[in-house]
Amino acid sequence: MSEQQWIETACWAVALLAVPAATAGLVWLIGKTLGKSGQSDS
Predict the structure, then answer these.
(1) What is the DSSP annotation of the chain?
(2) Which of 6, 13, 28, 31, by CA, is between 20 and 30 Å from 20?
(3) Where are the transmembrane segments (predicted)?
């Protein structure tokens, strides 16, 4: 593969890994925030 192809492949790999990682992090953060308020309410 040429250098251009390696760069494109790396970008796709990073994007495919970053999207679910960011989504999981966001869900965890929201769950943590809601979990705290939920515990204090009950």
Answers:
(1) --HHHHHHHHHHHHHHHHHHHHHHHHHHHHHHHHHHHHHHH-
(2) 6
(3) 12-30
**Two structure tokens written together for 31:** 């769950």
Q: What is the CA radius of gyration of the chain?
A: 18
Query: Are residues 34 and 27 in contact, defined by beta-carbon separation less than 8 angstroms?
Result: no
Closest CA to 22 of 12, 34, 30: 30
pTM: 0.55
The amino acid occupying position 25 is G
Residue 36 has pLDDT above 60, yes or no: yes
Tokens of 37: 């308020």
